[in-house]
């Protein structure tokens, strides 16, 4: 299995934390794409076309074609336009942008500068998850390096192109990962999603045309400019261009980020993460962050890791967060924790989500705690019916999909809980499986 | 109300945004104020709002919406442990239980000496390092085995009174 890394190329894990500076990035070939565009006067249209050819799709979770998104920005517009990077990485299971910002922040800066050039944008913000404060500080340092070298700011590298870029931090709100909530948050308000339309490309930050992309999406752009969109597409598979960082968490021997070509079999990815912990068997996997429907072992083992294969299996590739659960996991308890999360993080704006997530959590909680009622599973499904499609943003759906999929695939476990007032998986087995994990390197 | 140093930091944040969008700096300004005061009292929030030329209620809306702001006093060291599913699979819940036992407090409580407050956190985007905890919103502590937690508590207890890390 040959893997050509793009996002993490030339980064040695042993020294990665010390090689994020500008000179390190330049040594790895960094800022060559931005220089090429400005030196060869490549037109913005040509840049967007190259990104379209690459089939790069949004890495934040929605998988929307990036080149197409860029083409929505008005070309001729009198006034400010904005570019935002969504580094508000808080989808449970996802920690890929953290490593990109930690080990290669200049790649994100270069990708943003190229995007700004392509869309005629002069100002941008990188919205960074509040909990990763150290990376917010590091990004500010990286920005200072880039500014001092004339790579961002006025008249970049002596050209007519100017782009100012700043870091903005969150402070603990999952909902700000939703792009319009993120915009409100930058405006200094509660992060509550906006009705769409109007879409950000026409009415975004401060009411101006705005494009928002995920950190990993921007990080892929320099390589595409240097090597061409077709080459990028070839690395993955049709309609699923390039490589992707998968965050593997849960019951594997080596949890962590793995950059692999799109379309890699799930079984291969599992092997890269060291396989299952303690010789136990795979029970289930959430392949795309906590909002994606769970898949039982026998289904996920037949999947390849790309948008289309995972969708065909009934789930979503989402952010590429692969949460692995072994046979020691109680699926009711797992769902209870996820349902609590959505209940806690609902912004409260839409009644179906605000009230519905509370219902979901309380009903799953009572099933887990031996107080489930015979009709609770029907009740849960009916609550999800009343949430899905009835809210401004996707958080309502995100809270509902785990409930529906856990019940669909592991119904007998829920029924056992309701009938016997206890768990099918003995408590001591659960405790052993989810005890504090001491990594082989920590022993 | 806020120190010269804090106001200087806030000015730096204000400069990131268009001249007519000072309110954009409110999240950073509240975080800076909290670092200085330990928590956000009503009058602190009002002072930040006044400095940025926004309504106190608009600043309070922000302070009460984002969960890393503290509206009540907390201990010198706030430890927030992630117990969300990916972390829980690698011992996040056990780590939180261990700290509860060691500190003799539950979530949202502070030790009698005022040193530690324990909080349950949601996803911090570091699931691969589980168990993880966040110290005073700023320092991420990864791979928190019982030994690592013991070491952290010893280190923090040894810091001189008044010092803030």
Compact overview of the structure:
Chain A is an alpha/beta fold and 443 residues long.
Write the layout of secondary structure elements.
The complex is a heterodimer of chains A (443) and B (165).
Chain A: H1 22-27, H2 32-39, H3 44-54, H4 66-71, E1 82-87, H5 96-103, H6 105-119, E2 123-128, H7 133-148, E3 164-169, H8 179-186, E4 210-214, H9 215-227, H10 229-235, E5 243-250, E6 256-261, E7 264-265, H11 266-272, E8 282-286, E9 295-296, H12 297-300, E10 304-305, H13 307-312, E11 321-326, H14 331-345, H15 351-368, H16 376-387, H17 395-409, H18 411-420, H19 427-433
Parallel strand pairs in A: 1-2, 1-4, 2-3, 5-11
Antiparallel strand pairs in A: 5-6, 7-10, 8-9, 8-11
Helix pairs in contact in A: 2-9, 3-6, 3-10, 5-6, 6-9, 9-10, 14-15, 14-17, 15-16, 15-17, 16-17, 17-18
Chain B: H1 4-14, H2 26-37, H3 42-52, H4 56-65, E1 77-82, H5 85-88, H6 92-103, E2 109-110, E3 116-121, E4 133-135, E5 139-141, H7 146-158
Parallel strand pairs in B: 1-3
Antiparallel strand pairs in B: 1-4, 2-3, 4-5
Architecture overview:
- The complex is a heterodimer of chains A (443) and B (165).
- Chain A is an alpha/beta fold.
- Chain A is 43% helix and 12% strand.
- In chain A, the strands form three sheets. Chain A has a five-stranded mixed β-sheet with strand order 6-5-11-8-9, with helices on both faces.
- In chain A, a hairpin with an 8-residue loop joins strand 8 and strand 9.
- The longest helix of chain A has 18 residues, at 351-368.
- Chain A is globular and about 75 Å long.
- Chain B is of the alpha+beta class and 165 residues long.
- Chain B has two domains: 4-65, Arc Repressor Mutant, subunit A; 77-158, Glutaredoxin.
- In chain B, 44% of the residues lie in helices and 12% in strands.
- Chain B contains seven helices and five strands; from the N terminus they run ααααβααββββα.
- In chain B, helix 1 packs antiparallel against helix 2, helix 2 crosses helix 3 (42-52) and helix 3 packs across helix 4.
- Chain B starts with a helix and ends in a 7-residue tail after the last helix.
């Amino acid at each position: 299995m040959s893997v050509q890394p793009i996002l993490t190329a030339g980064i040695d894990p042993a020294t990665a934390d010390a090689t994020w500076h500008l000179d390190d990035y330049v040594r790895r070939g960094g800022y060559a794409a931005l220089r090429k565009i400005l030196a060869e006067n490549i037109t913005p249209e040509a840049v967007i076309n190259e990104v379209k050819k690459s089939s790069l799709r949004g890495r934040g979770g929605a998988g929307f074609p990036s080149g197409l998104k860029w083409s929505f920005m008005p070309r001729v517009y009198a006034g400010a336009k904005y570019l935002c990077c969504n580094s508000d990485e808080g989808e449970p299971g996802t920690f890929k942008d953290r490593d990109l910002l930690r080990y290669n922040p200049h790649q994100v800066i270069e990708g943003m500068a190229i995007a700004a050039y392509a869309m005629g944008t002069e100002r941008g913000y990188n919205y960074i998850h509040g909990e990763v404060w150290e990376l917010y500080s590091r990004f500010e340092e990286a920005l200072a390096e880039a500014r001092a070298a004339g790579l961002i700011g006025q008249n970049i590298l002596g050209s007519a192109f100017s782009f100012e870029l700043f870091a903005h931090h969150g402070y603990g709100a999952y909902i700000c990962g939703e792009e319009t909530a993120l915009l409100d948050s930058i405006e200094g308000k509660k992060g509550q999603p906006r009705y769409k339309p109007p879409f950000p490309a026409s009415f975004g930050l401060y009411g101006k045309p705005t494009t928002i992309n995920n950190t990993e999406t921007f990080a892929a752009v320099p390589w595409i400019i240097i090597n061409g969109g077709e080459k990028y597409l070839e690395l993955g598979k049709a309609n699923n261009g390039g490589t992707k960082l998968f965050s593997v968490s849960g019951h594997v021997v080596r949890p962590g980020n793995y950059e692999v070509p799109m379309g890699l079999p799930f079984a291969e990815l599992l092997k890269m993460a060291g396989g299952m912990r303690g010789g136990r068997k795979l029970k289930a996997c959430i392949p795309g962050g906590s909002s994606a429907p769970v898949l039982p072992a026998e289904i996920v083992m037949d999947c390849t890791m790309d948008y289309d294969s995972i969708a065909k299996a009934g789930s979503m590739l989402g952010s590429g967060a692969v949460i692995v659960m072994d046979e020691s996991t109680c699926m009711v308890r797992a769902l209870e924790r996820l349902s609590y999360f959505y209940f806690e993080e609902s912004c409260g704006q839409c009644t179906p989500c605000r009230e519905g997530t509370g219902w979901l959590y309380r009903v799953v909680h009572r099933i887990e705690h031996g107080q489930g009622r015979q009709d609770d599973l029907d009740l849960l499904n009916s609550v999800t019916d009343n949430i899905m499609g009835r809210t401004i943003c996707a958080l309502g759906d995100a809270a509902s999909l785990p409930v529906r999929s856990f019940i669909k695939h592991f119904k007998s476990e829920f029924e056992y809980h309701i009938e016997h007032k206890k768990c099918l998986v003995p408590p001591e087995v659960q405790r052993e499986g989810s005890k504090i994990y001491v990594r082989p390197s920590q022993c | 109300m806020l120190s010269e140093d804090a106001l200087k930091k806030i000015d730096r944040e204000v400069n990131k945004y268009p001249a007519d969008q000072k309110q954009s700096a409110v999240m950073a300004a509240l975080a800076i104020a909290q670092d200085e005061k330990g928590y956000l009292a009503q009058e602190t929030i009002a002072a930040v709002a006044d400095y940025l030329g926004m309504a106190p209620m608009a600043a309070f809306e922000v302070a009460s919406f984002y969960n890393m702001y503290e509206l009540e006093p907390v201990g010198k060291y706030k430890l927030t442990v992630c117990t969300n599913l990916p972390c829980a699979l690698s011992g996040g819940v056990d780590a939180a239980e261990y700290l509860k036992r060691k500190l003799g407090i539950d979530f949202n409580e502070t030790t009698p000496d005022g040193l530690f407050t324990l909080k349950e956190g949601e996803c911090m985007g570091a699931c691969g390092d589980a168990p993880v905890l966040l110290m005073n919103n700023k320092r991420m502590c990864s791979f928190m085995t019982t030994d690592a937690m013991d070491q952290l508590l010893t280190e923090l207890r040894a810091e001189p009174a008044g010092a803030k890390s």
